[in-house]
Amino acid sequence: MRKTKPWPNASRERALRESGANTIIGIDEVGKGSWAGPLVIGIAMLSDDVIFSDEPALVLGGVRDSKQLVEAKREAMFDQVAAKCRNWSTGLATARECDELGMVAAQRLATTRGFAALGLDLGKVTDPVVDVAVVDGRWDFVSPHARKVLLEVKADVNCVSVAAASVLAKVTRDRMMRESSSDYPHWHFDTNKGYPCPKHRAALQGYGPSAIHRTSWAFMPNYVPWLDN
Q1: Domains along the chain?
Q2: What mean pLDDT do residues 18-30 have?
């Protein structure tokens, strides 16, 4: 029998709230490994009703790390996740910005835009109003927008705020890539979302890159060698 994976929990958020933190957000990114399209950052600030519920992940429609959910399930829960947030936003960096700035700077830019989109009175950068940001991964691309940044590998699996941010970011980006597929039909962005697959590789070899490909990426000369000529 296949073992059911545990739900992400709110133990971090509860401990932080009980220690006096008021504004707690989860942050995750999607699209970092894609060959085309934007990098998108998701930010989720859950309400106390969710944080202190018996099953916070179930209150959010069964939220998990977006990679553990099929596309239809992510889409179905998006509105419920958004509605249960005290506040939420997404921020992006375009494919061109990823090329021109590099991924580190592009990720910081997308995060800055995500914080701006929260609509909070964020005050001065030197005195941010977000008390704690829980971030999936090993490096801090959030400072100085939060007073404290907690880095945790697999936070999108274990922390419900980060899981919520993961779904918000993934669905937002997937919708953008599906819309882009009508403008760039050869690359099948509606199904691959810009990630490598046989049809995507074949389209690159036959048609070259689209306007939303990251042409500076290391893979490009392997499929579009004439760009180096």
Answers
A1: 11-179 (3.30.420.10)
A2: 95
